[in-house]
C-alpha cells in the first residue's frame, strides 16, 4: 500500500482519503477531581480505589479498555458501562426447491431457511420462505437502486439463462429441471449469503421482508424472460463508455490508480483459473464416463473367460473400475460446486467492484460538468452586464442560477468525497474477505482430492490379492 504522503500527493486525494480524528469526550487530560469538594459534579467523581496498596487499575473509567482492566482487578464489584455486544449469526441455506405449474407457466421456487440472531429487526431466530427466481432478481434491482450510488459493492445474482428457461418450461423430464434447480440453488444461496454478510445491507428492510415474510411477494416487473433490468445495465454500460470518451477522468489519486490496476490483474488471473477449472471438471466427468465404459467391457470379458481365477480377477477389476468411476464423478461435482463456481462468484464480485469505480467516475464527471456550467453562466452574466450597462432581469436570473449551481457544485464535491471514502472501505473489506474465502476454497479442494485419492487407493489395495491369485 502507498504511504500517506503518496496518497495525499494529488489535487483531491486529501479530500477523499483523510479521516478526521475526533477527540474522545473524556481524554487523558481530565482535571483531577477532589472528593471533598462539594462543587464536584457527580458525573466526574472518581471511583473509590483507596485500598492501602498499589493498584494498577484506572482511577477513572474513560473507555472500554479501562472498564476491562477495572473488572479484572475488582471481581467483587465494578461499574457497568455498557452491555457486551451480542454476536451476530446469519446463516441462509437453500436445500429444497420444487417445480410449480405446467408448460409455459412452469417455474421453480426455492426454500430459504434462515437462522439469525443479534441482528436488529428480526423478531425470531428461524424463518422459512419460498421464493421464485424472479423474486431474487427483483430484490437485486432494489438493492442496486439504493446502495450502488453510495459506493457499496453489491454481489451479482445468477443471470437468466435461455437454456435453463427452456429446460424448466418445455421439458417434461424431472431430471432436467432438477439439474437446473440444484445449480441455481447453489448460486442463489451464495448471492443472499453475500448480501447478509455486508454490515449495511443485512439490516435493509427489503432484504428483511424477502427473508421473513411467509407469503408471496409482489411480482417484480423488471424480471421478464429478457430482463429489462439487464437491458438497462447494458445501456448504462454504453453510457459509461461514451461518457469516458467525451469527458475522460484523469485519475489524481494514486491509491485509486494502483487499486484499479491490481483489480484488473486479479480479474484476468481469476478468469484464467476459471477456464482451467471448467476444463478440469469436464476432464473428470470424461474420466468417470470412460471408467464406466471400461467396467462394462471388463464385465463382458470376465463372462467369456474360461480360466476361473482370471475370470474372478476380471470381475473384481470390474467392480474396482466402476467404484473408481463413481469416485471421479463425485469429485467432478465437488470441483464444480466448491471450486469452479466459487471462482466464478469472485469474478462476478470483481465486476461489481468495477461498477462501484464506475459510479465514482460518473460522480466526478457530474462535478466537473457542473463547474463548466458555472463558468458558462458567469461568462453569460458578464456579457449581459456589459451589454446592458448594468443589472437587468436576465442578469438577476443568471445570478440566481449561478448561486444554485455553486450550491450544486458543493454538494457534488461532497458526494464525490464521501463516495471515494466509502469505496476505500469497501476495497479493504473485499480484500479481507477475499483472502479468507480463497483460503477456504483451496483447503476444501485439497481435502476433497485427498479423500478421493485415499478412497481409490483403498479400492486398489483390496484388489491386489485378487491379481496375485491369478493362476497361469
UniProtKB/TrEMBL annotation:
Keyword Membrane tagged = yes
Q: Tell me the classification of the organism that encodes this protein.
A: Eukaryota, Metazoa, Ecdysozoa, Nematoda, Chromadorea
Q: Which gene encodes it?
A: snx-1
Intracellular or extracellular location(s): Cytoplasm; Golgi apparatus; Membrane
Gene Ontology cellular component list: cytosol; early endosome; early phagosome; endosome; endosome membrane; Golgi apparatus; membrane protein complex
Q: Which family does it belong to?
A: Belongs to the sorting nexin family.
What's the name of the protein? Protein CBR-SNX-1
Could you tell me the Gene Ontology terms of the biological process aspect for this record? early endosome to Golgi transport; execution phase of apoptosis; mechanosensory behavior; phagosome-lysosome fusion involved in apoptotic cell clearance; protein localization to postsynaptic membrane; protein transport
Gene Ontology MF terms: phosphatidylinositol binding; phosphatidylinositol-3,4,5-trisphosphate binding
Q: Where is this region: Disordered?
A: 32-58
Asked if the record carries the keyword Acetylation, the reply is: no
